[in-house]
Task: inverse folding
């Protein structure tokens, strides 16, 4: 993030894209005792100005988005830092689609496939083969609720600019259940007024 001044003289933090990243590695911390290790990562020019790491499905690797010939590319690293191939079940995932694998690991959330008016659809793929096996309502898939339902951003009905809201969407159904109001942009700084955060709840 960088601080930028807008035309009205206000200052805001905005995401930086392109250029050389200052990222030099990552920490892995043990939640129980706070101890951790530092793993260096080689500098590369195909990452955004800031690009965070996230854990793979089994927690044995980390990955981060890289810029390339298609959207959503990702590079995996082992916990010591060196780059490694993607796990078989995560090879066809997109780094820019937060939902990733369904809870049972049988389905992979993918990117926007079609739009018509205020409706949009995203692809659901076979995680190992990469083939599209279904489409589900929603323009940007954020998190799986269970093996059939997801939380997604979807355009609110009505004319005018894109005005996203959170919805619950279900495989095999064209219906969506609104979960939030519309997220409006801040016209003065180009930022947005709130950002959803999803966490896994264990029984």
Result:
């Amino acid at each position: 993030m960088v601080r930028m001044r807008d035309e009205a003289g206000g200052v805001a933090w905005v995401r930086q894209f392109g250029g050389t990243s200052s990222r030099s590695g990552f920490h892995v911390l043990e939640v129980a005792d706070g101890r951790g290790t530092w793993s260096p990562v080689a500098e590369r020019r195909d990452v955004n100005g800031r690009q965070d790491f996230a854990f793979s499905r089994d927690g044995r690797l980390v990955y981060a988005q890289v810029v390339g010939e298609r959207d959503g590319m990702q590079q995996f690293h082992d916990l010591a830092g060196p780059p490694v191939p993607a796990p078989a079940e995560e090879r066809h995932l997109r780094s820019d689609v937060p939902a990733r694998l369904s809870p049972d690991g049988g389905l992979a959330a993918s990117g926007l496939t079609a739009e018509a008016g205020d409706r949009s659809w995203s692809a659901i793929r076979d995680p190992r083969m990469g083939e599209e096996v279904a489409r589900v309502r929603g323009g940007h898939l954020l998190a799986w609720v269970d093996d059939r339902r997801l939380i997604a951003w979807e355009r609110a009905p009505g004319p005018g600019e894109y005005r996203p809201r959170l919805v619950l969407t279900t495989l095999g159904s064209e219906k969506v259940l609104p979960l939030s109001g519309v997220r409006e942009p801040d016209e003065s700084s180009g930022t947005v007024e709130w950002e959803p955060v999803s966490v896994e709840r264990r029984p």
User: Anything to note?
Assistant: The mean pLDDT is 87. DSSP finds no helices and 15 strands in the chain. The two ends are 36 Å apart (CA to CA).
